[in-house]
Design goal:
The protein is α/β, with parallel strands linked by helices. The protein is built from 8 helices and 12 strands. Keywords: Plasmid.
């Protein structure tokens, strides 16, 4: 993390999840920053003894802490390295955020990673770092705050849109939204057949690739919908298929895919279910 901060030439926002290993943070996540000039802390443990923390590698070596890099053999003793977190713009010290207050951070938390770039929550962490109460509060930087929503949130919005939009009034969800199937995010019943939908904010070739994967599900018994950015539908070219914006979903052929702009989804949900959208925009209060 220090190397990342040094490459960026600025402190970087970091979240740390300890799971059940640390009771204090069992149902929460710690958020702070790593400074590019931070000293690596050394934690020295001996069997039967309390851990000893040294605030720099130099201090640890001067105290005689063994170093595996020097060929020292460790028996019944362990040496760990750690970086101290500092506070963000909105608070002086690293702060723990409860999953009860902010369940999104748990829902989109990366699994099976010790260290990674947290793309799904990147904008939320940036907003938390700023001390914003809502994603709407950073509209000076971003024209459309819905573009900052996590992919999982956008999938929920699109699923709700299908419930609200008159053209899909026969839609019924049949599987959990997101992470259910490899190439589609929403699965349900519609007009006597199966509805498959892919949700994305991707553009260009990435959007076209998602359309190609969705097309594999298109036949005479299915309705396939691609939710994507406005103005991108004309850029999609999938051999053997036609991408139709604002189509009649009940009249789609086996070689047609409906295209629904995400902006229309947000507008519809904002009108019909403003409470849902506002809940998604809300951020935890760092003062609590």
């Amino acid at each position: 993390m220090r190397k990342v901060a040094r490459d960026e030439e600025r402190p970087v926002v970091v979240s740390a999840y300890y799971g059940n290993r640390v009771d204090q943070y069992g149902n929460s996540i710690l958020i702070g920053r790593v400074d590019p000039e931070a000293d690596v802390h050394i934690i020295y443990c001996q069997k039967g003894e309390a851990p000893v923390v040294y605030e720099s590698e130099t201090a640890a070596r001067e105290a005689g802490v063994p170093d595996e890099n020097d060929g020292d053999e460790l028996e019944d003793e362990w040496v760990f390295k750690a970086l101290p977190l500092i506070g963000c713009d909105a608070y002086d010290e690293p702060k723990s955020f409860s999953f009860t207050d902010y369940p999104l951070l748990s829902a989109v938390r990366p699994r099976h990673h010790s260290f990674c770039n947290w793309y799904a929550a990147k904008e939320h962490l940036r907003a938390i770092d700023m001390g914003a109460d809502s994603l709407r509060d950073i509209e000076d930087d971003v024209d459309d705050p819905s573009s900052l929503l996590a992919p999982a949130q956008l999938e929920v919005l699109c699923n709700e849109y299908l419930r609200l939009e008159e053209a899909y009034d026969e839609y019924t969800q049949t599987l959990p939204v997101g992470r259910t199937m490899r190439d589609v995010d929403i699965v349900g019943q519609y007009d006597g057949g199966t509805l498959f939908a892919q949700v994305t904010q991707a553009t260009g070739s990435d959007l076209e690739e998602k359309a190609e994967k969705l097309a594999a599900y298109a036949d005479e018994n299915t309705v396939c919908i691609l939710f994507g950015p406005s103005g991108e539908v004309t850029e999609i070219d999938v051999e053997g298929y036609e991408i139709l914006q604002e189509p009649n979903p009940t009249a789609l052929s086996a070689t047609e895919i409906a295209y629904e702009p995400v902006s229309k989804v947000v507008s519809t949900v904002d009108t019909e279910r403003a409470d849902l959208l506002e809940t998604m925009y809300e951020l935890p209060d760092p003062a609590q």
